[in-house]
Design goal:
mainly alpha; 20 helices; globular
Amino acid sequence: MIWALVLFLVTYVLLLFLPKYRAYVALGSALLFVVLGFLPVNKVLTEIDWNVIMMIAGTMGIVTLFIESKMPSLLADLIIQKVPNVKWAIICLALFAGIISAFVDNVATVLMVAPVALNISKKLNISPVSSIIAIAISSNLQGAATLVGDTTSIMLGSQANMNFLDFFVYQGKMGLFFVVELGALASTLVLMYIFRKDKQKIDVKDRTKVEDMFPSYLLLGTIVLLIIASFLPNMPKMINGFICMGLLLIGLIRTMIINRSFKASLNTLKDIDYFTLLLLAGLFVVIGGIKEAGVIDAIAALFVRISGNNLFVIYTLIVWASVLLSAFIDNIPYVATMLPVTAGIAAVMNVDPTILYFGLLIGATLGGNLTPIGASANITGLGILRKEGYEVTPKQFMKISVPFTLVAVTVGYLLIWLIWS
């Protein structure tokens, strides 16, 4: 167990300090766990959650087609044409990014909405920095709202056997969707205060034209089928993955027929983030290895001892430790590691793990908003600004992100405890 723990900690340190090589680190560590005998060879493929891998891959491909259709830009244009000034433009774009990111990958959401903010800033000759930051942190906030909103949500759904509708109502109580939305509503008040002085008039006459509605129907169909599948009994364990991959295949075949070439479909396949998929596959094996070695059970027992077997203390510790850690490290490996730990803690304490699962997801997802490097959406937004010639300091970013995040997390923290304790 000690050597398995040492290898795991080394893996985590390398994941932290070698962000460009995370997938290779995870795969290399997975190989070592097998070679050193921590995980039997016959358990490698079963430890990888193929439902999660297929859901993420399929959703990424469908989102690529959705972005290429220009529908997100049209929706943003329609919103902007209804607002009186810059303050409300930024707030509406941030809210729009949040709503989209509840169903679409956070990075993809930033790539959709940020160009609209840049366009407005250029026409008004103002800095786009604040608006892009607001869009990035808002998109990251609502990733935990639905099953398909973020990789961490998909992992939670798999761990807790939750379907699409369970994120709205779970065991007869308010689900994560409404908790996240109430947190978003509270953090919107923060944005209103921060941008209270930006009252420049706005007039955007150009409207994006959408010539292909099929990708929009494809994304909507994905959501509808996931909902339907959640109602049907005795469905295969990987049904969600099959749905996402099946609809992506339909989209790719249609693209190939329309363009009379496989090249366009190939470009869509190239846009899938295989780096993240390989990272996750490696992490599933690594976590399987430390679980097999008894590390997960030992960590769970340690948490229980520290908390004095008090549920409120352990819940608080998980939420705010997750916020702090996710501010500096990627939340995907963190959540992948902590989900089985929280399950172990709940088993030791003989309590329903739901409150700990929800607390973990709220803390880990929202905590990434604290710093510029805490979430992929933040890094993407700052990358867009850098290309436009704007270098954003941590101070500039955190002036908006810190109050926004603390308010959203506090609301979620209190609501989850009140509902689920």
